[in-house]
Amino acid sequence: MGELTKGRLDTMPPGDRPFIIWDRGRLPGFGIKVLPTGRKVFILDTRISGKSRRLTLGLYGPLSLDAARKLASDRLGEIARGGDPVADRRAARTAANVSNLCDLYLEAAEAGLVVTRFGRPKKPSTVAIDRGMIVRHIKPLVGHVRIDRLTRADVQKMIDAIASGKTQADERTKPRGRSRVTGGTGIATRTAELLGGIWTWGTKRGHAVGPSPSSGTDRYRSQPADRRLSQEELNRLGAAMQKASLEWLAVQDARDAAQKAGRKAPTVRKGLVNTSAVALCRLMALTGMRPGEAAALRWDEIDVSSQTMTLQDTKTGRSRRPLGRPALELMKAIERSSDRWVFPSNRGQRHSPHKKSLVELFRLASIDASPKVLRSTFASVAADLGYSGGTIGEMLGHARQGVTERHYIRRVDQVLIAAADEVSAAISAAMGT
């Protein structure tokens, strides 16, 4: 079928079973394995010491086609010089320190072979967070310790060191970038949980033996997210969004007029928030969606007739939720500048998180909180209106706990839609919209 191209990989649909597409005519033995989940993993089939071997190179996405080809070529060169990548990998699996165990875990996670409690591979963004905790906290503190000698006391000392800020750092990573590593009790607890998860993963694959040394350690209990926006803060946020929209439209009108008159268009001042970011912020407020869920929303996930949205990829998996009437009207009013994304990037090729714009809106509203507070605000307003925790959880897409809830309660009924109508209407009124 010819050589692999980026276009082929991007449009290649998964099948019911895994299948392999080879890079014919380009690099012998190099190909990509397409899993039923849609994940695509680069592989290399070759012979080492007269025996057929298959090497897993990495997951498409984090690893580009060109980078995978170069990696495959490097592996073939290594084999031609008498090396044995398979044996090296095996040796790494039997390596006796925590740092090596973490490397094996990250290698598997990047290949889509580490699953979450929901039975799906960890997302690249989550793997990146894991890598950050490993590189900044785990390796410096316990990475040198042999696996068979890692004790609960070692892990406890790691937790205490992170909590006291011993792993804090502020360093330059790029010409215009910095890496600020914070410690504290929250990151200490999350790092201990990650190390425990890595250990459990390792024991299932023979890389570690025995109970996790993280078990039984003293952890810092995270504080509940009880911050919510008050009526006054919601009103200020609504006013800030209205002002930002008017400023953006005025600038666009001025630029259009200048273009028609053949004049140089005025520059857009730094910090100006566009109408797409305003709509994203408003949607988060009216639905309680997580920032990542709202930013990645697709048009085909919205069903206007049933007043619902079906999110295909969330923290808790596929999630069907009600759209309150104000949120539904907002969706109808958003201009479609992309056939796929509701909030596309400037080029329309992917969605835009609008992180800086969301922070700017909160600054304009003089609100000292993260935009994530809109989710807890939605839940709090729903509770104020008398709705139960179960109803609030269904509106927010919380993970279902029981067997019945997980497998059979899927329909968004009119009662739930009516609840979403009331909650989003109350928030809309508080914002003055």
Task: List key phrases describing it.
433 residues; alpha+beta; Double Stranded RNA Binding Domain; DNA polymerase, domain 1; hpI Integrase, Chain A; four-stranded antiparallel beta sheet; three-stranded antiparallel beta sheet
Structural class: alpha+beta
The CATH class of the largest domain turns out to be: Mainly Alpha
Strand order of the largest sheet: 1-2-3-4
> How many individual β-strands?
9
Shape: globular
- CATH homology superfamily of the largest domain: Intergrase catalytic core
DSSP helix count? 16
By CATH, the topology of the largest domain is: hpI Integrase, Chain A
Judging by the overall fold, what is the CATH architecture of the largest domain? Answer: Orthogonal Bundle
Order of helices and strands: HEEEEHHHHHEEHHHHEEEHHHHHH
Strand content: 5-15%
Provide a quick synopsis of the model.
With 433 residues, the protein is an alpha+beta fold. Helix content is 47%, strand content 12%. α9 (275-287) packs parallel to α13.
How would you characterize the overall build of this protein?
By secondary structure, this protein is α+β, with helices and mostly antiparallel strands. The protein has 3 domains: 88 residues, 2-Layer Sandwich (Double Stranded RNA Binding Domain); 107 residues, DNA polymerase, domain 1 (Orthogonal Bundle), CATH 1.10.150; 200 residues, hpI Integrase, Chain A (Orthogonal Bundle), CATH 1.10.443. Helix content is 47%, strand content 12%. The chain is built from 16 helices and 9 strands. It has a 4-stranded antiparallel β-sheet with strand order 1-2-3-4. Strand 3 and strand 4 form a beta hairpin. Helix 4 runs antiparallel to helix 5, helix 5 packs across helix 6 and helix 8 runs antiparallel to helix 9. The longest helix is centred in the middle third of the chain and has 30 residues. The radius of gyration is 25 Å and the shape is globular. The N and C termini lie far apart (56 Å).
